[in-house]
Amino acid sequence: MKNLSLRWSDLDANFHLRHSSYYDLAAQERIEILDQYGITIDMMKAQNVGPVLFKEQCEFRREIHLNSKVHIITKLLKMKRDGSFWIIQHEFLSEQDKLHAIIKVEGSWIDTVKRKLARPVPDAILSGLENFPKTEDFEYL
Length: 141
Hints:
- The protein has a single domain, classed as Hotdog Thioesterase (Thiol Ester Dehydrase, Chain A).
- The chain contains 3 helices and 7 strands, in the order βααβββββαβ.
- It has helices at about 20-35, 40-45, 125-130; strands spanning about 1-5, 50-60, 70-80, 85-95, 100-110, 115, 135-140.
- Strands 1, 2, 3, 4, 5, 6 and 7 form a 7-stranded mixed sheet that branches.
- β4 (about 85-95) and β5 (about 100-110) form a beta hairpin.
- It is elongated and about 45 Å long.
- The two termini are about 25 Å apart.
- Pfam families: 4HBT_2.
């Protein structure tokens, strides 16, 4: 769980969180969590591999305002056993744990030199994904 610090630039003309800010906050949180589980930027550079998204979808439930106390919970929802495909879920929750938005991203790993999907996934990435927090209804694909 990460408490969010919202900026004036995150707001839209209606004075609530701009739709694209949700995606930016979720992306930053994903990278920080990957780093916590050993999938660091330096490791990805050394392995010539990086995350690639196929789909990113948000369901907006409640507005978030500048002074809102909101946190984000990021968990792995689904994954192929070899780590080559995954779905990560981000929940934006209030202090009272009311759901404001939910983002789901579907992705894989790309070989940054060949510009093709990375197969097989490096062991360090698979290990990190195995340790990544998982939803209660997590499933292998």
